[in-house]
Specification:
mainly alpha; globular; single chain
Length: about 170
């Protein structure tokens, strides 16, 4: 099996698995929570996007990706991780301001993931990915997309829900 086919298969399977988990378990749980808690749980997935900084190590050890693509991937993911962290702080301490920041995170993440998909296709990164890079592309990226869809759903379906007067204690 070629690396490209293996990566495509793993990515497709993980999208399907994460979607089933989202539909069967996460969505019902989200509906039973306050909006702030639901959004916080979904955003935590994005805080760890700094894992993309491993691209510098991967490139040094043979992952053939151009410097401009490497830099944009790293910048996009670190920006997303920081926006996720700021959004979590806002959800806890400034809940009225939080939806704006969460929407900003969504827009940044869509732009970053689309850029990574296009640039990755042009540079054929699935043919070159191994180790942690393969795991990020085949597992973490599908998880980000599913989390993004759930976050968007929560913002749209619960936009009339007033934020709590006091931030949740947990």
């Amino acid at each position: 099996m070629s690396l490209t086919l293996a990566a495509a298969l793993a990515t497709a399977l993980n999208f399907g698995i994460f979607t089933l988990i989202a539909v069967w378990y996460v969505a019902p749980w989200l509906q039973s929570q306050q909006r702030t808690t639901a959004l916080s749980a979904l955003i935590w997935v994005h805080v760890f996007r700094d894992i993309a900084l491993q691209i510098f190590s991967a490139q040094k050890f043979g992952f053939a990706v151009s410097d401009p693509t490497r830099d944009m991937i790293a910048l996009g993911d670190v920006t997303g991780a920081l926006l996720a962290l700021i959004s979590l702080l806002a959800l806890r301490y400034r809940p009225r301001m939080a939806p704006f920041l969460v929407w900003l995170l969504i827009l940044e993440t869509v732009a970053d993931l689309l850029y990574g998909t296009v640039a990755g296709s042009q540079e054929q990164i699935f043919e070159k990915a191994s180790g942690v890079t393969f795991m990020i592309l085949a597992s973490y990226v599908p998880l980000l997309w599913v989390s993004l869809a759930l976050t968007t759903w929560q913002l749209l379906s619960r936009r009339s829900e007033a934020p709590p007067v006091f931030a949740p204690s947990s």
